[in-house]
Design a protein that fits this description.
heterodimer, A: Methylamine Dehydrogenase, Chain H, 1 helix, B: 127 residues, Cytochrome Bc1 Complex, Chain D, domain 2, globular
């Protein structure tokens, strides 16, 4: 063997050994949706860098993500009905299907084996094997006498291998139980007009649906589903003087501290503070615009708020002790989403029209770094894998 | 002009002609740059047109889909709109649709800007 061949071989073996020894976990990784290019970027929240862009995910307006319980795979729910399983360690698509004409969100089951998708067109929920993405169950969400399928919103997982979701057109909440291996659905009718989104409390006990068509919220106690759906906060909503709502508030990630829940007012420039024990409003905080996301830092000491078009270049931080605004930040045009690292020392903020994600220190409020992205929207860190309802 | 472009587009879909596709792309580009129909939109600057295009794709797209194929709101593709009158669409944008999440945009957009947006929808918008 010549010297040249030897050294080439040596370099090759060395690089192989480097490639083989760079094992890593995924607990500090995340995925950012780039709706401008139908792609996602895999990010590292420790180094605060982008690791890789993955392309070919279709129409990602309003896209969301859930994670496999090993935090290796991200399931991306696209607007065009696409369900894409992305391997975030390899940085590539491992499977992709088009499961409907138009979808809005998804959830992963308690045991991590089922991925459910809620659809607008043709409506209903489809449930897939999280490993193979093969269809396990189809729940068409047919209502009324005309065999119509309802658009489905607010789909979440619940303890007991259950999924809960709301039927926008039908005004119903459905609870589907997979604990026997088969889908068994309980229907709750007349829960209110046009439920537009839903959330589950972090302990997985209460499912709450927001109503567009009337005031108040519909609540199902999942410890006692036999008691049916009840109403809380009867004044919550657009009220008698209906103001235009340019972007519906998102319910997922509603801030809950020990004593209070912080809710986005609908169509008004306010964050409402509600007593968690009796669901009575205790205060309202005037903010910069119509709130969209109202999210608590993981320790509950701060609540971060972003706003609807056209006042969407701003983020405000509220102190949950003083119920006052602590800080106003300008991350750029069209702030769409915020995601805290699991212990809350950083928050990542996407500004769609500014084409960047800004990472803030949540104590000093200094921008630590910015990452260029193509119309970034949702930001999803892998710690969601271990949280009920996310 | 709008009707003509729509017709050319249908023809293109039917025959899948590459040359036609290229010509149409050029035509649509010119359309956006110069404004619609010999520029009846003198009050809308180039920059504002870019903003309106972005508004259509991104903000309208939040409910109607970035490809305008629908979402919580209905589809707004040229096909979906071909039987709807211009007046109906303009009024819907300006005044919203009571009983649905569609808000009135008249405090944010001028009538001229709404007309520009409807023109863009009739032709078909791509991100």
């Amino acid at each position: 063997m010549s010297m040249v061949t030897k050294s080439v071989l040596l370099v090759f073996l060395l690089s192989m050994s480097v490639a083989c020894t760079t094992l890593r976990g995924t607990g500090d990784l995340g995925v950012v949706i780039e709706r401008g290019s139908g792609s996602v970027q895999i990010v590292d929240t420790t180094q605060r860098i982008s690791l890789k862009q993955v392309n070919g995910l279709g129409d990602l307006s309003h896209a969301s993500i859930v994670y496999s319980r090993d935090e290796r795979y991200a399931y991306v729910f696209g607007r065009d009905g696409g369900l894409t399983k992305v391997d975030i360690l390899k940085g590539e698509i491992s499977k992709r299907i088009i499961q409907s004409g138009n979808s809005i969100g998804g959830a992963i089951s308690q045991d991590g084996k089922l991925v459910a998708v809620s659809n607008y067109k043709p409506g209903g929920v489809k449930v897939f094997d999280s490993n193979t993405l093969e269809l396990v169950a189809n729940i068409p969400a047919i209502y009324g006498d005309t065999n119509q399928q309802s658009k489905v919103v607010g789909l979440v997982d619940a303890p007991g291998q259950r999924f809960v979701f709301s039927l926008y057109d039908a005004g119903e909440i459905w609870l589907t139980d997979f604990s026997s291996g088969k889908a068994e659905t309980t229907r709750y009718k007349n829960i209110g007009r046009q439920p537009y989104d839903g959330l589950i409390s972090p302990d997985g006990r209460y499912y709450i649906a927001g109503l567009f068509g009337e005031d108040g919220l519909a609540v199902l106690d999942l410890w006692h589903p036999e008691k049916g759906v009840k109403r809380i906060l009867s004044d919550y909503g657009r009220g008698s003087k209906k103001m235009p709502v340019y972007k519906m508030p998102h319910l997922e990630g509603w801030a809950m501290t020990e004593d209070y829940a912080f809710l986005p007012a609908v169509g008004r420039n306010q964050v409402l503070v509600v007593n968690r024990r009796n669901w009575k409003q205790v205060a309202s905080i005037t903010v910069h615009g119509q709130p969209v996301f109202v999210m608590a830092r993981p320790d509950g000491r701060q609540v971060w708020v972003n706003f609807a078009y056209p006042r969407n270049d701003t983020v405000q931080v509220i102190s949950t002790e003083q119920l006052q605004i602590l800080k106003t930040l300008k991350p750029g045009k069209a702030v769409l989403h915020m995601e805290f690292t699991s212990r809350g020392e950083q928050v990542w903020v996407s500004a769609r029209d500014a084409g960047k994600v800004t990472v803030y220190d949540t104590e000093s409020f200094n921008a630590i770094t910015t990452l260029p992205m193509n119309k970034p929207s949702g930001i999803f860190f892998t710690n969601r894998a271990h949280r009920i309802g996310l | 002009m709008t009707a003509l472009l729509t017709r050319v587009k249908h023809c293109m879909v039917k025959h899948n002609n590459q040359l036609l596709k290229l010509l149409l792309t050029i035509a649509m580009f010119m359309f956006y740059v110069t404004g619609y129909a010999g520029d009846t939109y003198q009050n809308i600057t180039e920059q504002r047109r870019a903003e309106l295009h972005n508004l259509l794709i991104q903000d309208c797209g939040s409910c109607h889909g970035m490809t305008m194929k629908g979402g919580l709101g209905p589809a707004l593709t040229p096909d979906a709109l071909k039987n709807k009158s211009r007046q109906t669409i303009e009024m819907t944008i300006l005044q919203g649709r009571p009983g649905t999440p569609m808000p009135p945009w008249q405090s944010i957009l001028s009538k001229e800007e709404v007309r520009w947006l409807v023109d863009a929808l009739y032709v078909g918008v791509t991100p």
